Amino acid sequence: MMKKIFVSFFVCLIFSLIFFKILPENSKLDSASFTNASDTLSNSRLSYRAGVASGTSGSSLVTIPATGNADNDTNHLFPNDTVCFTDAGMNGCIGSTTYNVANIISTTSFNVNTPLTNNLDTSGFTIATQSAIHTISFTLVNAVPSNGNILVTIPAVKTAGKTNDGFPDTASSIANNGFDLNGLGTTNVSIASTGCTNNWTVASVTAGNGSTNHTILINRSTTSCAASSVITVTVGDVNKQLINPAPISTGHTQGVADVYTINVQTRDGSNNVLDQSDMKVAVIESVLVSATVQETLSMTVAGVASTTSACGQTTGVTTTATSVPWGTVSNFGSFQQAAQTVTISTNAASGYTVKVDENDQMGKDGKVCTGDAAGEAQNCIQDTTCNATGCTEVTSQDWTSTSYYGLGYSLANISGTDAAFLYNESARTFSSKQFADQEASETKQTIMSKAGPAASDQVYLCYRLNVSSTQPAGYYFNKVRYTATATF
Ligand SMILES: [Ca+2]
Ligand SMILES: [Ca+2]
Ligand SMILES: [Ca+2]
């Protein structure tokens, strides 16, 4: 019996970036930069915001226009993404209904998982919201007195009425765009401190008004907080999270991140600034840094053509920055090879790391593959165990026998020596690891790192797939996520 397995593999590029800006000595009287400052997003994927070209009640087909919006193609829309269709004023989801993306048909069309219950509004929007908890951490240089406070400033879109409406925002420039507050209030912000008693009160969360940014005011009380204390402000919780911006509508290049600046200040009882830092958060792909900050970090993930030699293998599939389309697999029990390049440049004195994980095993129609060893019996393509001496997401092992099935990866240096391991280490042929499984709470693993600045350091990430002839037929996919972190 001929079985067809459609296997596709989406790469979701997500970056957490940590920047530390050193201000000139004379920038503020007696103020200093925090000695360590970072804002880590739990999810750094850009929100998706396209127009609507057509969509008719009873049909599951939606088309989008190719110009005029933050997103003008389906490149950053993935199967299983939740989508909401709005009118031009974004007055909720039409029919009060959300859908899941079933599959992407072309660069301007996709299917939803159930027929549309209403005609769509061709002046409206296609929205797939991405939201994140912000974990903002910093170390005090100066003590905060008992009547002092912390002020966190988060960029908001410069359009009145749109800063806190629960829909992702876009603008023609980074300076005019930001994170939607999504109704977040004081109860959704928490604070922890090490080195002083944790007697802080979240006094207010104020939405941007169309010309201002969002601000969070946290008051000290009773006692001072000593220098060198480490403060962590967590903005958002399981109930309410800030909504990541959509791409800016002018000058955004897929593969290049939009970078936003979060500012944190500590102040005395008269609101004089004690310490402050700008922290950069980048949503998707590589990073450009705004003109006020000299430090840079950029990361680019790029596709690799088929018949390219990578990791000692010849690739059989042409990849892009956002997909590894294995296509229809009928060649069971043989290795399928694909690759992407990952390129890093940074002037960070302390260097950088890039980590990788997957949302889950490749599941049939995106089903959940419960546990770290889900395989054929669960309608999933397993994570490879390599050869009889098994590999894991932590420990590499040679994978030479086509009797061992699943998905795995290896690494090769192209420029520099930043790869965490190599395909030919220990005289091996294709030394491999599993992708860490987020669904099973596995820890994402480093694939590239350097202890100092990097100039276009580049590796091949080589994917390998081997499918058993008894694998149930179907469409299998998962998402692989890259997370880049630099500390200045
Ligand atoms: Ca909004
Ligand atoms: Ca799993
Ligand atoms: Ca694993």
Written description of the protein model:
This protein has 488 residues and is mainly beta. The protein folds into three domains: 5-12 and 300-486, no CATH class; 20-41 and 131-290, Immunoglobulin-like (Sandwich), CATH 2.60.40; 48-128, Ubiquitin-activating enzyme E1, FCCH domain (Elongation Factor Tu (Ef-tu), domain 3, Beta Barrel). It has strands spanning 5-7, 10-13, 37-41, 48-51, 61-63, 82-86, 98-106, 109-112, 125-128, 131-132, 134-139, 149-154, 189-194, 200-206, 214-220, 230-235, 242-243, 258-267, 273-283, 297-303, 309-310, 313-314, 327-329, 336-346, 352-358, 362-364, 380-381, 397-398, 406-415, 431-432, 445-450, 454-466, 474-477, 479-486. The chain is globular, with a radius of gyration of 24 Å. The relative contact order is 0.17.
